Amino acid sequence: MVDFSSPNVAKEMHVGHLRSTIIGDCLARILEFQGHNVLRLNHLGDWGTQFGMLITYLREAFPEALTTADALGLGDLVDFYRQAKKRFDEDEDFKEKSRQEVVSLQAGAEDSRYAWQLLCNQSRREFQVIYNLLDVELNERGESFYNSMLPGVVEELEKLGLLEENNGAQCVFLEGFTNKEGEPLPLIVQKSDGGYNYATTDLAAIRHRIEKEDAKRLIYITDSGQTNHFSQVWQVAKRANWIPDDVEVVHVSFGLVLGEDGKKLKTRSGETVRLRDLLDEAINRARIDLEKRLKEENRSESQEFIENVAKVVGLSAVKYADLSQNRNSNYVFSFDKMLALQGNTAPYLLYAYVRVQGIARRGEIEFEKLREDAKIIWQDEQDLVLGKHLLKLNEVLELVAVELLPNRLCEYLYELSEKFNKFFENCPVLKSAEPLRTSRLLLCDLTARTLKLGLSLLGISVLERM
Ligand code: ARG
């Protein structure tokens, strides 16, 4: 089970969600490739106080949005949400109304439910545009899914004798987590007003995933800000015996995306970068680079070719730049670096693949036919170096599956491209005499297939020409 972090409903996907989405997708792809049955879940923040605020605010400011689909654009909703939050923090009366609204929502009041559905549908549609663009498949199982299981979590903890009351809230005191005075910290599972929180939902989710879905490994992909949350929730789940010994829970955490100034990436006007804008810009820049190169090389290509190459190169560059960093560190986002044809970049890897396809075209080679009685001759050192590296793929994938570090696969593919380029520059392929010619063509073919497979596990598709 891979659990992705994503924006809450009525918020937009920003650059922070990029990491969770593509790291999660890559790990899911690798585990699926190894034959595991992977449940990809989007634990969408589609429930709770934020809806109380938003609905309460809209009732006053724009009631139409609660009864008519798409009466407001998502951008407006995001603004309304911001204003609602401000009112919530400043105005006691508004706060109380919002709480009431959550209670009606949880109790299933029809108009609240209807408004909530409208808001969720709208956000969902917007998120889907980005998931489609990134070619990421997920199943939505938002926080609301666990709503009916929350009272059971509290009851069960009570039965097990783990529950204590603290300032009117129901909580479990944690081992190893203390406040400034050195007293144990509580994990609240039911607030004094009877409401449940993020921790309760995650406890219910653990039980559901293990008991109902028979999950053996629970992998959570979120930024490192949630590390404590998960350790606390897991501790309680373990003490309640909800996580058997043969089930592993792991937090795949990651660092920040920084701007070239070394601070959290922002737009020029200082706002968070919308993921949509970032991806569009990557594609645009890839198109500009390509058009420049076509001019320099005196090539003319169809509009369709240009659009497709720009899209593949732009998106792969963004994905690869992220995946190729050790996920635990922050990294500096630079369009120029990620789109460069040289260095540890997606374009460099894609280009190695294209090179092989070029050889096949020039020599009119059909690789499928050559594969029939494949025999490789280890003529020069370069043949051997490349061959040895090709054999390591499996080992690398096994390591990635254990450590959950996609950058290891990137490193492997980058080295493969480097070794291939060296081989290609030093060893004649089409001009070699048989049987060496066929042997080297087979090495080229194996390199291309390894690159294609490896890149597909990163969520990147190859190009035949670029
Ligand atoms: N939607 C939340 C977020 O993005 C939750 C993601 C983590 N998953 C979980 N089961 N808590 O922060």
Short description:
This protein has 466 residues and is an alpha/beta fold.
Describe the protein in words.
- This protein has a 5-stranded parallel beta sheet with strand order 3-2-1-7-8, sandwiched between helices. A 3-stranded antiparallel beta sheet has the order 4-5-6. The chain has a two-stranded parallel sheet with strand order 9-10.
- Helix 1 links the parallel strand 1 (2-4) and strand 2.
- The chain has 466 residues and is of the alpha/beta class.
- The longest helix is centred in the N-terminal third of the chain and has 25 residues, at 110-134.
- Helix content is 56%, strand content 10%.
- The chain folds into 2 domains: 2-258, Rossmann fold (3-Layer(aba) Sandwich); 275-457, Isoleucyl-tRNA Synthetase, Domain 1, CATH 1.10.730.
- Arginine (ARG) is lined by residues 3, 5-6, 43-45, 202, 205, 220, 222.
CATH topology of the largest domain: Rossmann fold
- Tell me which CATH architecture of the largest domain applies here: 3-Layer(aba) Sandwich
Distance linking N and C termini: 36 Å
Bin the helical content: 55-70%
Per CATH, the class of the largest domain reads Alpha Beta
Number of domains: 2
- The parts where pLDDT drops under 50 for at least 5 residues are none
H-E string: EHEHHHHEHEEEHEHEEHHEHHHHHHH
Number of helices: 17
- Strand order in the largest sheet: 3-2-1-7-8
Averaging pLDDT over every residue, what do you get? 94
Strand content: 5-15%
Shape: globular
Bound molecules: arginine
Structural class by SSE content: alpha/beta
Rg from Cα: 26 Å
- CATH superfamily descriptor of the largest domain: HUPs
* Number of E strands: 10
Give a short account of the largest sheet: 5 strands, parallel
